[in-house]
Amino acid sequence: MSTAPLTGRRAIVTGGSRGIGAEIVRRLTSEGAAVAFTYSASGADAEKLVADVTANGAKVVAIQADAADPAQTANAVDRAVAELGGLDIVVNNAAVAHMAPIGEFPGEQFDRLVAINIGGMFWTTRSAIKHLGEGARVINIGSINADRVPGPGVSVYAMTKGAVSSFTRGLARELGPQGITVNNVQPGPIDTDANPDAGDFAESLKLVTAQGRYGHTTDVASFVAFLAGPESGYITGVNLNVDGGFTV
Ligand code: NDP
């Protein structure tokens, strides 16, 4: 009988209550990892996810923590370490989007995107790093919009995802000698609450992909699980697109 590849590994996933993050929680636990995930508002979704995953016999912990708040983020990491007995995998997934022309872009939305999409990644990683050892993984969820922006109104979101890409490279260089890999998974259009397949922009986004369609949360989660696993140890510091050919 083969052992699940992530058996014995302990992970934290930020923004795990819904969408891509929730699918990552399901996938990592199905491959044997024990997982803590954060959420900010979707308590009912978080509870349901915990119930589903626990029913499958896996260890999962939901932690309410606003990714924009450094203290809450640090507490979430501490609690994850306490509940799981350590930490091997960090998935920085929590992010929000807001679209508006730059001349009308609300200042509070700018602050929110920077605080969650960049700050959340920084604070989570900063708190987690002292717990990570040889073979650990940091996996950031960026966006293909860091590389290609096919329409207006997306500049601030794209900027935050460009920061994810740059942070990934710098951190990979810093943590390489410790045997810790750092990578940036860049999804294209994926069917979630944030970007529904039937949403206002869906048809135009489909046309940008080579495949003419949206992807599924499982497309991203399966790739994250590979990066979290034992066979990805020589991949670090790169942007890895799961985008149906958004940039070709
Ligand atoms: P969703 O909006 O569907 O889900 C976002 C998740 O993040 C939810 O679990 C939400 O929980 C959580 N979250 C949001 N704000 C906070 C916060 N302040 N603190 C903690 N958790 C928070 O997004 P997606 O699943 O679509 O996106 C996931 C990632 O993938 C993001 O990084 C996004 O930028 C990226 N991405 C998505 C694409 C897509 O087409 N869907 C394309 C490219 C990149 P709660 O409701 O509890 O706040």
CATH homologous superfamily identity: NAD(P)-binding Rossmann-like Domain
The biggest beta sheet is recorded as:
7 strands, parallel
Structural class: alpha/beta
Instruction: Output the CATH topology.
Output: Rossmann fold
Family: Belongs to the short-chain dehydrogenases/reductases (SDR) family.
Organism: Mycolicibacterium arabiense
Keywords: Oxidoreductase
Protein name: 3-ketoacyl-ACP reductase
Structure characterization notes:
- With 248 residues, the protein is α/β, with parallel strands linked by helices.
- The model has no long low-confidence stretch (mean pLDDT 98).
- Helix 3 runs parallel beside helix 4 and helix 4 (107-128) packs parallel to helix 5 (155-175).
- The protein has a single domain (10-242), classed as Rossmann fold.
- It has a seven-stranded parallel sheet with strand order 3-2-1-4-5-6-7, with helices on both faces.
- Helices cover 41% and strands 14% of the residues.
- The termini are far apart.
- It is globular, with a radius of gyration of 17 Å.
- It binds NADPH dihydro-nicotinamide-adenine-dinucleotide phosphate (NDP).
